Amino acid sequence: MDPFRRAQIILLCDLCKTAHLQSHCERCDINLCQTCVGKHLSDSSIRHKVVLYKYRKSLNYSTCPDHADELCKHYCEKCDLPVCSTCVSSSKHEGHDTSDILEKLSAKTESLQKDLDEVETRIYPRYEEMASDVHTEKAQLETNYGELTTIADQQGEILHREITAIVNQRKSDIQEMKNKHLSTLNKNTDEITQKITELKQIMSDLKSILKSNDVSLTSTYKSRNSEFRTLPPKVRVTVPSLSAQKINKDQLNEMFGSLSPLSINTEHGDTMKSAEAVSSPPVKPLLDEPRVTATIDTGYTLYSVSCLSEDQVWTRGDNETMKLLNLQSELLTSIQTKSGIPPSDIAVTRDGDLVYTDYRTVNLIKNKQIQTVITLQGWYPRSVCCTASDDLLVIMYSDDRKQYKVVRYSGSTEKQSIQFDDQGHPLYSSGYYKSISENKNLDICVADCVARAVVVVNQSGKLRFRYTGHPSNTKQPFTPVGITTDSQSHILTADNNYNRIHILDQDGQFLRYIHCDLDTPWGLCVDIRDNLFVAERYTATVKKIQYL
What is the CATH code of the structural domain delimited by 297-546? Predict the structure, then answer.
């Protein structure tokens, strides 16, 4: 008989024992024929994972140390270790809670994946950022100490020969301080580099464990994430200053000026909150009846609103003037764009500064002074928002208005561009009206009016979902314009055609509407207490709404 045919006869379904196997359930570690797959999946109490037999992952059960001929397919919760069937029934584990090792493996694997995700996306980038900060400070060190040396030289030129010895002494003092400064920074760099090396090894080990599917390694894994959440101390060094005095030959040494002491302060490293702590704000339920608590008259056709505080908002209308108003409609500040054309959008940074886009530029207003931070070529900036990490997310379109993309900037440096999905298709339509907001879970949410959809991608730019309106209202076209998010990771978007706000959860599930007699709602923002501000386009008013 042909060996391959003979092998096929041997490989039978573990349930019916008669039909040839075709599939394998990795969760239950059994082989199944096509007929028995349906029966097996009918047990909905277990999260099965059925794959083709040739794609199965073999589980590496550990051998019981007390019973060498048995595999550890159970897990003792009290002893926190894998055990075999004989161990379960022995007096050693009598009365102990036990579970299937595969259930424990699934939970442990999920825990490992969470640790890996936290190290890769939150902890490791902070260490890289700290290393970059120290590198920048070291680069600036030469400039700072060079300025001190120059001051010393200038004093020496005035005092000529009599002061030469003192000049040399001061230079020596400066060099000594510089060496101490540099030595301290190098030590700080070495400490951070060592931690980064350890983190790389941890990430590599976690990936290896996850890839190996080794029960023993997975079960005995101990997380070190809490150890690395406390960042290393950050060195703060104050560069000395040189105070110059008028020349007096009798008191040259004193009058030349003395260096202030080298100040090296080590700040205790911040302890980062775990991913669970960051993503779990206090729960605020939705009100059954949202209510308007204030109405602000702006005096012009309105497009955007951005909160500076609970009682002050910046607004953008149909002219070049941006207005800061309080809840009593009093004008506190007004600023005109540098270009003299209406801004495309506005946003408030974490420091309370105003950002606006117009024509080819993104501009920052600090202390009423306008700084152009980004100048584009071939693209026009539209909507803008400030992120939790103080980056800027900018929606922009190409010169021919056929391409739209989201670009992340740190200062004036481009860090990320989001334009296509995994299949290479455009994420966003070529239509004009779009608005953007970052959610608490770092998702990037875009209201795409022409596409009649809210498009949500994760922080890496991978498409998570599209929300196209409430499923029961398929005959009413969904027209999202403004968008914002709150502390509960709700997504709120203005449906201007139907004068209402849609509230979604972070996964795009519709929760409810806000009506509040809205008239053409357009721009949205939420303050730190989760009060919603709605800019009504044609009434020229901003409504403050309590909905949580």
Answer: 2.120.10.30
